[in-house]
């Protein structure tokens, strides 16, 4: 597989993303990721929260040795770190761990303890958004595990779109999947999943801001429960 490495302007990339979003809407997740690998080569990466390794697994089939970027916020559940380590050990991927500029202790010293309780938007900005912006600088395109059925805020997620904030092509190959589709893929391929998914958590983020979901709640209801906040800032 030979990737096209020509330099494209921002406007060309934006047009490419919008066209691919239309053309690939009905394509399989693997086809979408093969397109990304062929189009962007090593300037393409996958981001993973290690809730599960479905997109990382798909991407490794499309592009063996693909870069998989993980944000270690310093607040993860031990199970999440364990999932990351297992993915690195068994999958044909290049695992890259990003960390914030400050440790949790350093952040506490500057902003006071438990910033996540007092100003969760700032905490997410410091520990997620800024590290990802730095970590993605060498890439033209990145893939996520966003799905339309996760919450109303994600209902219109394109399979390929334009990330205006970062000026990059953003690929969501399983956007049209249901939770049943995810589980079927996990079962068929023996894909690693975070053990917390078997313990009442439908969406896994930082430990202080994540709880189990109640029956009938959407998958994102356990994130920042009791607050108006629904996204960390990575996706809007």
TrEMBL record:
Keyword rRNA-binding: no
Domain Phosphoadenosine phosphosulphate reductase span(s) in chain numbering: 49-211
Gene that produces this protein: cysH
Subcellular location(s) of the protein: Cytoplasm
Chief localization: cytoplasm
Essential cofactor(s): [4Fe-4S] cluster
Organism in which the protein naturally occurs: Streptomyces edwardsiae
Family, per entry: Belongs to the PAPS reductase family. CysH subfamily.
Cofactor annotation comment: Binds 1 [4Fe-4S] cluster per subunit.
Record-linked NCBIfam families: cysH, PRK02090.1
Catalytic reaction list: [thioredoxin]-disulfide + sulfite + AMP + 2 H(+) = adenosine 5'-phosphosulfate + [thioredoxin]-dithiol
Any one GO molecular function term: phosphoadenylyl-sulfate reductase (thioredoxin) activity
Residues that coordinate or bind [4Fe-4S] cluster: 123-124, 206, 209
Top-level EC class as recorded in UniProt: oxidoreductase
Protein EC: 1.8.4.10
Function statement: Catalyzes the formation of sulfite from adenosine 5'-phosphosulfate (APS) using thioredoxin as an electron donor.
UniProt pathway: Sulfur metabolism; hydrogen sulfide biosynthesis; sulfite from sulfate
Taxonomic lineage of the native organism: Bacteria, Bacillati, Actinomycetota, Actinomycetes, Kitasatosporales
Domain of life, source organism: Bacteria
InterPro entries given in the database record: PAPS/APS_Rdtase, PAPS_reduct_dom, Rossmann-like_a/b/a_fold
Name by which UniProt lists this protein: Adenosine 5'-phosphosulfate reductase
Keywords from the UniProt entry: Cytoplasm, Iron, Iron-sulfur, Metal-binding, Oxidoreductase
Active-site residues, Swiss-Prot/TrEMBL: 232
Membrane-crossing segments per the record: none
């Amino acid at each position: 597989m030979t990737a096209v490495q020509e330099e494209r302007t921002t406007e060309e990339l934006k047009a490419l993303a919008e066209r691919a979003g239309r053309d690939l809407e009905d394509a399989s997740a693997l086809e979408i990721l093969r397109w990304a690998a062929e189009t962007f080569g090593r300037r393409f990466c996958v981001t993973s929260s290690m809730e599960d390794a479905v997109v990382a697994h798909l991407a490794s089939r499309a592009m063996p040795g693909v870069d998989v970027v993980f944000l270690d916020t310093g607040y993860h559940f031990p199970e999440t770190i364990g999932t990351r380590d297992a993915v690195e050990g068994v999958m044909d991927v290049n695992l890259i761990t990003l960390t914030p500029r400050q440790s949790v202790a350093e952040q506490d010293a500057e902003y006071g303890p438990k910033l996540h309780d007092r100003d969760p938007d700032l905490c997410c900005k410091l520990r997620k958004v800024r590290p990802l912006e730095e970590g993605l600088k060498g890439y033209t395109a990145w893939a996520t595990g966003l799905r339309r059925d996760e919450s109303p805020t994600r209902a219109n997620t394109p399979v390929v779109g334009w990330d205006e904030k970062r000026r990059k092509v953003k690929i969501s190959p399983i956007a049209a999947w249901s939770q049943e589709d995810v589980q079927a893929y996990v079962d068929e391929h023996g894909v690693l999943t975070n053990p917390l998914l078997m313990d009442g958590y439908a969406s896994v983020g930082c430990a202080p801001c994540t709880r189990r979901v109640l029956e009938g709640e959407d998958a994102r209801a356990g994130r920042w429960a009791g607050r108006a906040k629904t996204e960390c800032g990575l996706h809007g």
